[in-house]
Amino acid sequence: MATPSPAELREGEGKQDDEEEATELESIPYHPPAPPSDLINTETTVDPSYIISLIRRLLPPTIKVNDEKQGQYSQDQKIGSGEWNSADINMEHENEQRMESTNGYEVSLPLDPWEECGCILWDLSADNSHAEFMVENFLLDVLLASLTVSESMRTREICLGIIANLACHEALRKHLFSTNGLIGTVVDQLFVDDSPCLVETFRLLTVGLQGCGALTLAEQLQSDSIMSRILWIAENTLNAQLLERCMAFFSVILESSEDVCSILLAPLIDLGLPGALANILACEMSKLTGVEESERGSVLDSILCVTEALSVTDKYSHLISSNRDIFVQVLSLVKLPEKSEVASACVTAIVLIANIFADEPNLISEASEDVTFLESLLDILPLVSDDLQARSALWCVLERLLLQIEEIVAADSSSSLQKYAMVLVKKSNLVVEDLVDHQPEDSAEGDKDLHKHQKTANAQITSLSRIASILDRCVAARHGASSTSSEEEDEKLHRLLSYCIEYIT
Questions:
Q1: Residue 99: strand pairing partners
Q2: How many alpha carbons lie under 13 Å from residue 282 in its C-beta half-sphere?
Q3: What is the pLDDT of residues 260-295, one digit of tens each?
Q4: What span, in angstroms and rounded, lies between the C-alpha atoms of 503 and 505?
Q5: 211: left (phi over 0), alpha (psi -120 to 50) or beta
Q6: Residue 111 has what DSSP assignment?
Q7: Would the keyword Nucleus turn up in this protein's UniProt record (predicted)?
Q8: How many CA atoms lie within 13 A of 430 on its CB side?
Q9: What is the percent of the chain where pLDDT is above 70?
Q10: Left (φ > 0), alpha (ψ -120 to 50) or beta: where does 365 sit?
Q11: Other CB atoms within 10 A of residue 371 CB
């Protein structure tokens, strides 16, 4: 199958957006998320015969009970106490309508019996007991039949959504891999140009790469044609939810067992995953200046999480740290004046920057010449307060950065000294608050993260020593020349200097 151009996919997604706009009420109630790992134990019980009737109604009309070509649908196989009969799929309710409410108005929508039944099963499949009953009554075979014969994108989306929900129940996952032809058919859906279908396909594949059957699925996905299609979708989709699903898929690969990771990561790298991440990151950053900023924060964070995870892999970390486009975009993110909408992404970016600096020390010198970068790092201190890894990374970045700044102010004019000193004074409250909120005694002996606490403490002491050195040099410069600083600035400078000296001693 020929891969469509980016314009074609965008056009397809545009049409999909128009359709969703026109039928918004129809689609909103029927996109249940994947159930959490600790599945909700519902107190309500659905009549098993009702579930059986729903499953019957999903059986494609083209599948006949006596058709010898459909061996798996022979008369010997029944759903519950009834045979699979296409007569059960009828339009007896074709004139019925359902009422949906939006913005205070009642809107009448035509009722599609197949879609209605499918959406109910989609919802019910989030419950473990209901899901088990569905699988016991051949729902997977029925869904496979629908995926095989249906040309409706909505039908495929519902089938994939139900299967993805079933896959979230670990005990049922083995049934997906034992249903002949199901996994191959799911993988084939990657070549469908429909965003909702692709969203559910990636959700299903992401779950499938966890636990039993992961190696089997990895082997089904490893071909260059499939891997290149996945990368193409990630780079070209305009659908935020689909992009997040793609990133979740990449993340699971990086977190998978060594066998699964080795099968899938190598072809992705060979096909250009680092470059694709750089392009996607640049595209998302370009959207942050628009009205979508509040909606793109989670998407941006998902991209950075994949990039950060790749930056610590033994074989491929250099492909991230040496990619200048990634470095430039991450620094641009950190330097955004308003960080509230992208706070989570900024936290991930700090860890990524620390990893990049560890691999490429020459980049520290470049970053240290940007006063805005220092100011932005200090602005992020409150955001990493509750994240031990990110806070440790930030102080390590500050430690490296301040070493370079100390050398700059020692060799440069007093104007550079004043600029850096004023940034430190301006953000002094953030520095002090962070240190007060994380006293050394907070990390007691025996803490499993004791080593990380110690690393952070060492970085803090070194950083404060360098801050004290810069401030001390600034004080001396002001005494030796007429100063234009205010009394308030001088008072803050001396207060921060005193605090640094007291802390490190």
A1: 108
A2: 14
A3: 999 999 999 999 999 999 999 999 998 886 555 566
A4: 6
A5: left
A6: -
A7: yes
A8: 18
A9: 76
A10: alpha
A11: 14
